[in-house]
From TrEMBL:
Native organism: Moorella mulderi DSM 14980
Record keywords: Hydrolase, Membrane, Signal, Transmembrane, Transmembrane helix
Keyword Transcription regulation set for record: no
GO molecular function, one term: metalloendopeptidase activity
Protein name: Murein DD-endopeptidase MepM
EC number: 3.4.24.-
Superkingdom of origin organism: Bacteria
Amino acid sequence: MAAPPGLFARVALALLPEPEKAVKWVLVIILVPVALLALLFAGPVVIWERVPIASPEQVMIYVDAAREVSASTSSPCDDGVTVDWQPLLAIDAVRLDQDFRKANRDRAEELARMFIEKSGSCRVCDDSDPPNCTSYPTFRLRSLDEVLDELKFSQGQREKVKNILRTDLSFLLGQENAVPPGWTPAEKELKWPVPGVFTVTSGYGYRTDPVEGGMSFHTGIDLAAPMDTPVHAAADGVVAKAGWSGNFGYAVYIQHHGSLMTIYAHLSEINVQKGQQVEAGEVIAYSGNTGKSTGPHLHFEVRAFGLPVDPLNYYK
């Protein structure tokens, strides 16, 4: 027989005899869900704040603008200065609020020119008598803070720009991370998840989506593991998730020391369960073709502080 609702109410009140304690419990009931929601959405917010949401084609606007402006500062008597495209991209990520549809070559070049300033001149003379001399301007590279001052960026905007620049943004160019023939991983902090299978079929970064087409960001690497290849834990840790995971199909998430997590996706079979302690090299699953996948392989992902990073950086 089910207990009447009034009984549960009396038990709850008995556990909270003091009004002050009741207030504290009410606050906990309210604040815990809020904190959980904050953690749930922290990843996307952090990515939005720290990674420019630009396609490789849009990124190239800034690369070309920086190259053009850098070339304009060189002369027969001075090597000139080199403008870095990454601060340009970071600044516009903030100025445009990540809407890179507004980006164009003229705007990017104008921004790039804010990083150079005429500092003097140099002369080149020929061997004629009297010699004919030509003067050329010389330039200095202005600092990021100088440019942000000129743009009248607020303190909050400055922090956003500098947070973006804490990461090397080269991966946004969509360059392939394929490894050369005969490459083998150098196992240091992490062990290789599929020993003997070293073919990387799709690297970390922007790529053409193999299922839907169009550009998308690949958050890990794909390894050409045949169906039912044993998948090993990359390091000691605790299984944070094991089971179906949307586009990842069957997947295993392992939380390691500190902020590091590894993910193994598109699996055919899982050998572990949530909360289980695993050791580096232990077989945790078998590769497969589940979820959003075009063929048998292992999607291997590494996250640091909740953000995806290039797994190959741990094996070079």
